[in-house]
Amino acid sequence: MTRADGPVTPPVVLTVAGSDSGGGAGIQADLKTIEACGGFGTSAITSVTAQNTTGVQGQHLLPIAEIEAQIEAVIEDFDVAAVKTGMLATSEVIELVADHAAVLPNLVVDPVMVAASGDRLLAAEAEDAYESLIAEATVVTPNADEAAVLTGRDVDDPAAAEQAGRDLVEMGADSALVKGGHVPGDTVVDTLVTEDEVTTFRHDRIDTEATHGSGCTLSSAIATQLAHGDDLSAAVGSGIDLLASAVRYNVDVGEGPGAVHHLVRTRDDAARHPTSEAVERVVSALVDADVSALVPERGMTVAGTTPYAETPDAVAAVEGRITRTMDGVRPNRGVRFGASTTVARALLAAREHDPSLRFAIDCRLTDAVEDALASLGGAIASYDPEERPDGASADAIAWGTGRAVETSDGTPAAVIGREGVGVGGRVTLLAADADDLVSRVETVHEAVKDGA
Ligand SMILES: Cc1ncc(COP(=O)(O)O)c(N)n1
Predict the structure, then answer these.
(1) InterPro entries attached here (predicted)?
(2) DSSP letters along 339-363, please?
């Protein structure tokens, strides 16, 4: 028997950039990101850098004819749907790309000048040459420092970013995304300027130096989304969201600051099935142990997040909770992503301060349960509801859980919420994995079941 082939045709994306032997930035980051976003990645290498997480040790520029040959080899054969440029190194390379612009659709220009390590990746005299390429760009994506070089304008707040964006559009770019990562402040504001409108994208700043490869990853994600047919603002928005996760869950490799996690979303999607299976295993264990004594009046929620969860739809939980019946505890329905709101949000709030926490279960709060928590061997965290800001009252449990984890002395095994004791008072058991959560519940249950 021969099997029929089943070819797929992902949109082809071309990156024209430098090689980073350290794997975090450049061509390596671009290809990983393009594939993660569902494109087929092709490349034209401009320069081979000897580089790692501590800096750039060497650079070898390829002959201009070799760079041109790579671009032409790709363009002549593939139906290229989008192109991104990264490290172009010299004015000759910038001009080469500008000369080919007519056959380079959806051109995303990341005007790479200096690496995160501080090493120069563009000859100083080549900065002016960018003007010719910017004029051809669908979108140009400078950080604040690059925008300042390109426009001669200090970019130190969102108003200046918008002005710099307008300057770049005036230079002929269809649009400019002026990135706010290098502008100080707790919120990162990225500003997208087109001829007709200005859109700002805001994210809480993530406290890490491991941003190596962030510009490459963002521009590659935007190019790939444009290749899929997204409009500009959707492509930019989804690229920024991907990068926020890629920076938060950065890869801790090498002696220097790590790199962004190019495959973060791919890995998270792949973890959905094992995550819901893990929650199902917890549910079975609770049924087997008949943990009636721990089940709150309203029912018990068991929830688990994917490893890089950001939103409640990445939290698997028992739909309709686990409740007490005449013969033991029973889940009302199956495990589904997005089934829980309250415990899901509490777990996500906990992860803002301790991303190792992935599983949670809410139990009755009684004196006996509280006494039993001491035997869990982890910190027991709590919070003062009086400290809750007015704005957080709609999500009081999430706020309290986040607050408790933030102020906990080490990763907590449980969070006690004393609000409305007897009515809403609860204890949320937490764990990094499902087996630990089961053993925590069993430990508490063993201690209280005879008195219940
Ligand atoms: C080959 C190459 N291209 C681009 C960058 C910029 O990336 P970053 O600013 O994150 O170091 C880099 N370091 N190396």
Answers:
(1) Aldolase_II/adducin_N_sf, HMP/HMP-P_kinase_dom, PM/HMP-P_kinase-1, Ribokinase-like, ThiN
(2) --SHHHHHHHHHHHH-TT--EEEEE
